[in-house]
Amino acid sequence: MKKHFTIGMAGHIDHGKTSLTKALTNVDTDQLKEEKERQISIELGFAPLYEDDKLTVSIVDVPGHERFIRQMIAGVAGIQLVILVVAADEGVMPQTKEHLEILQFLGVKKGIVAITKIDKVDPEFQELVQEEIALELEGSIFENSPVINVDSLSNKGIDELTALILKELETLEVSENHDAFRMPIDQVFTVKGHGTVVRGTVYNGSLREGETLYLIPKRLVTRARQLQVHNKQADRIFAGQRAAVNLGGLSNEEVVRGDVLVSTSDFQAADVIDVALSTTQDLTQELKQRMPIKCYIGTSEVMGKIIFFDRNELGSGQEGILCQLRLDREIAARRGDRFILRRPSPAETIGGGWVIDPAGGKYRFGKKTIEQLIKKKEGSPADRVLDAIKRDKGISKEALSQETSLSAAELDEVLADPAFISYRPGHVTHYEVAVAIQKKLKETIADFHKQNSLKTGINKAELVSDLVQGMPKELAEYLISNGEEKELWIRKGSYLSSAEFVPHIPSGWCRRSESMIEAVRKDRLKVRPFKEYFTEAGLPQLLEADMMRFYTEQNILVPIDDQLSVHVEAFNQGVQELKKGTAESFEVGEAKDILGLSRKHIIPYLEKLDEVKFTRREGNIRIWVAGK
């Protein structure tokens, strides 16, 4: 598989980053009129450096001025190799140090130090600069990085730098192209005749022309109409590439820098994230509980506040402090994503770190929360998967990959454990979760029986509706059906009940209900409205409907209309008397005389015979149905 890398160019303003990029690529990345006039980089600049059958390399040139630190962070986020540019005639400057700290917090894996403008100083001064740089880089990711002297105007050292870049990239692995596609957006513009176009560095996965995309956090649906890599048409783009995507169906106003394009609808955004935070070595003020911060993650910049759970302030040089960021708006992040924090005023970088959980909760201050965060931070892949499933109950593999930052292959390895259950294609839960939910379901059904002894069982649709409040509907359906297979409960029509449950009259009302039924039985077919028997027996009104349903389901009473119900003995005896006294067909008058009933009782009784298919009405006569 061909590898694709985008490498960064960082350093203090006017130390020659843009000139060095041009010397390496023959591309001037300062395109804006203001950049030409002021001779400083304001926006990110990109240029292709190298390509063969196995490798493509691009360079991102980031602004060096402190006013454009947001662009610098957006440019180097997600990049594995950075060239730290230091001018030979000035040495290490304030922005060199800040860029160095930012690169450290962003987890850049490799670095090259390029000392530029060497033609401006003599060899002795070059040596002094190199010694100064070595001291500044002690303890940083650049401490053992190769150092190279270059001059962009005379091209000294340029070929050697290119070769060095390619050598350093040999040991780096690109992001997994089988993961879901993800590209944070750092540039948005309109092309006449094509509509909205966005640019960014692809973090994960790959994308083909024509595929559906989702804009996070707005959750808008779009389509990749066209793809480009360095102004050349492409059928597919890959992790590590700098790319442009022409978005179908979205206006320029709907997309902003900081939005993220993803290929899965399961990618969730959140405004509360659990993090491991480290602070800079020279804070001007300590960080306070709930203090306002600017958070830079991917290409987004968002205001928020820090929440500590084991302290109320934090000083310089602290590492791996477990805390939380509560942001003013949602952002799209994955576990393992790096972030930078800056103080809004006075403006300064105060720290950075990595995301432990991209969808944190609200926790209490104290030791218990810290222990929970430690478990999240240090948990094995299986632990992280189980934690995510316990939170969501059931989850798609795409969302699980996002929340745990596991590649598709790593996730499949974890899910091979039979304790993980596929409840629908591409969606999983865990045995522990299933057992806990089914135990709760069984208890719910048992409690329902205690409160509703007259009813056959709890309505399945209502039970599913209640479950769906805390889990996917498909999981609720699966667990109910699975519980039925395991005989945890049984289904009777649309109702669920415990296997051992038999509907019954509440113990306190047995005698009164028996006397009521006896009164109905004695009145045979000349019954009064059921409500009268119920009231005379002294039964509570709230039980009337349930008791009527119970006696009907138990085949003790037969309702013949909405008010009258007869005892089943009387109903069946009436059928036998009618059959004995009539031929194959009969009229209402005949039935009335045989049974001795008034029109008030005979009409609903005969209509009930039609309903249960004992008879068939044709005009004014009724015909006995054969076999009944």
TrEMBL record:
<dbReference type="InterPro" id="IPR036390">
    <property type="entry name" value="WH_DNA-bd_sf"/>
</dbReference>
<dbReference type="Pfam" id="PF09106">
    <property type="entry name" value="WHD_2nd_SelB"/>
</dbReference>
<dbReference type="Pfam" id="PF00009">
    <property type="entry name" value="GTP_EFTU"/>
</dbReference>
<dbReference type="GO" id="GO:0001514">
    <property type="term" value="P:selenocysteine incorporation"/>
</dbReference>
<keyword id="KW-0251">Elongation factor</keyword>
<dbReference type="Pfam" id="PF25461">
    <property type="entry name" value="Beta-barrel_SelB"/>
</dbReference>
<dbReference type="InterPro" id="IPR015191">
    <property type="entry name" value="SelB_WHD4"/>
</dbReference>
<dbReference type="Pfam" id="PF09107">
    <property type="entry name" value="WHD_3rd_SelB"/>
</dbReference>
<protein>
    <recommendedName>
        <fullName>Selenocysteine-specific elongation factor</fullName>
    </recommendedName>
</protein>
<dbReference type="InterPro" id="IPR036388">
    <property type="entry name" value="WH-like_DNA-bd_sf"/>
</dbReference>
<keyword id="KW-0963">Cytoplasm</keyword>
<dbReference type="InterPro" id="IPR005225">
    <property type="entry name" value="Small_GTP-bd"/>
</dbReference>
<dbReference type="GO" id="GO:0003723">
    <property type="term" value="F:RNA binding"/>
</dbReference>
<dbReference type="InterPro" id="IPR004161">
    <property type="entry name" value="EFTu-like_2"/>
</dbReference>
<dbReference type="GO" id="GO:0005829">
    <property type="term" value="C:cytosol"/>
</dbReference>
<keyword id="KW-0648">Protein biosynthesis</keyword>
<dbReference type="InterPro" id="IPR050055">
    <property type="entry name" value="EF-Tu_GTPase"/>
</dbReference>
<dbReference type="InterPro" id="IPR000795">
    <property type="entry name" value="T_Tr_GTP-bd_dom"/>
</dbReference>
<dbReference type="InterPro" id="IPR009001">
    <property type="entry name" value="Transl_elong_EF1A/Init_IF2_C"/>
</dbReference>
<dbReference type="GO" id="GO:0005525">
    <property type="term" value="F:GTP binding"/>
</dbReference>
<dbReference type="InterPro" id="IPR027417">
    <property type="entry name" value="P-loop_NTPase"/>
</dbReference>
<dbReference type="Pfam" id="PF03144">
    <property type="entry name" value="GTP_EFTU_D2"/>
</dbReference>
<dbReference type="InterPro" id="IPR004535">
    <property type="entry name" value="Transl_elong_SelB"/>
</dbReference>
<dbReference type="InterPro" id="IPR015190">
    <property type="entry name" value="Elong_fac_SelB-wing-hlx_typ-2"/>
</dbReference>
<dbReference type="GO" id="GO:0003746">
    <property type="term" value="F:translation elongation factor activity"/>
</dbReference>
<keyword id="KW-0547">Nucleotide-binding</keyword>
<keyword id="KW-0342">GTP-binding</keyword>
<feature type="domain" description="Tr-type G">
    <location>
        <begin position="2"/>
        <end position="173"/>
    </location>
</feature>
<comment type="function">
    <text>Translation factor necessary for the incorporation of selenocysteine into proteins. It probably replaces EF-Tu for the insertion of selenocysteine directed by the UGA codon. SelB binds GTP and GDP.</text>
</comment>
<dbReference type="InterPro" id="IPR057335">
    <property type="entry name" value="Beta-barrel_SelB"/>
</dbReference>
<dbReference type="GO" id="GO:0003924">
    <property type="term" value="F:GTPase activity"/>
</dbReference>
<dbReference type="InterPro" id="IPR009000">
    <property type="entry name" value="Transl_B-barrel_sf"/>
</dbReference>
